[in-house]
């Protein structure tokens, strides 16, 4: 729909961060990439679609923040004194940040689609999408939801061995 396209209309590049397994540092890479782009003067957002292990709010020390609604959807949480990084994560929607999310595929897929279409990102140079480990339904849902937009590419995080 038109409203869906409007929320990502101001995003110039979308970058997925993926891996075949857990514990290799996807969230760390996503966070460091966002901070590096920010220090290079870019406007950056992070979409944390790791629904079972949303660690980016804690990494950026905003885990106690709340998400608010506006006319065009959810307003992301802005990080830092300069509010330079916009962040959306399921971590902000849980009662306690350490709560586990035990959902079947359709509910996860619906939330991912909602994250892609219903977050009011505004003007961003880069949207970094931190994905869960593996090659699951969440990845397919994320890529399909982002397909209409100009996807810049992906960073594949592997283990050193």
UniProtKB/TrEMBL annotation:
GO cellular component labels: cytosol
The organism of origin for this protein: Mohoua ochrocephala
GO biological process, one term: iron-sulfur cluster assembly
Family annotation (SUPFAM superfamilies): P-loop containing nucleoside triphosphate hydrolases
InterPro entries (alphabetical): Mrp-like_CS, Mrp/NBP35_ATP-bd, P-loop_NTPase, YlxH/NBP35
The organism's place on the tree of life at top rank: Eukaryota
Higher taxonomy: Eukaryota, Metazoa, Chordata, Craniata, Vertebrata
GO molecular function, one term: ATP-dependent FeS chaperone activity
Gene behind this protein: Nubp2
Keywords associated with the record: 4Fe-4S, ATP-binding, Iron, Iron-sulfur, Metal-binding, Nucleotide-binding
Protein name: NUBP2 factor
Keyword Iron included in the entry's annotation: yes
Cross-referenced Gene3D superfamilies: P-loop containing nucleotide triphosphate hydrolases (3.40.50.300)
Keyword 4Fe-4S (UniProt): yes
């Amino acid at each position: 729909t038109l409203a869906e396209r409007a929320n990502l209309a101001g995003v110039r590049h979308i970058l997925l961060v993926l891996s075949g397994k857990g514990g290799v540092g996807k969230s760390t890479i996503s966070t460091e990439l966002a901070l590096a782009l920010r220090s290079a003067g870019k406007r950056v957002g992070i979409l944390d679609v790791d629904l079972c292990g949303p660690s980016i709010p804690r990494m950026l020390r905003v885990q106690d923040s709340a998400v608010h609604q506006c006319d065009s959807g959810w307003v992301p949480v802005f990080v830092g004194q300069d509010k330079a990084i916009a962040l959306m994560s399921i971590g902000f929607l849980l009662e306690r940040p350490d709560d586990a999310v035990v959902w079947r595929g359709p509910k996860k897929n619906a939330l991912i689609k909602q994250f892609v279409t219903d977050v009011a990102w505004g003007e961003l140079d880069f949207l970094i999408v931190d994905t869960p480990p593996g090659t699951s339904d969440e990845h397919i849902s994320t890529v399909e939801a982002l397909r209409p937009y100009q996807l810049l590419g992906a960073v594949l995080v592997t283990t050193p061995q």
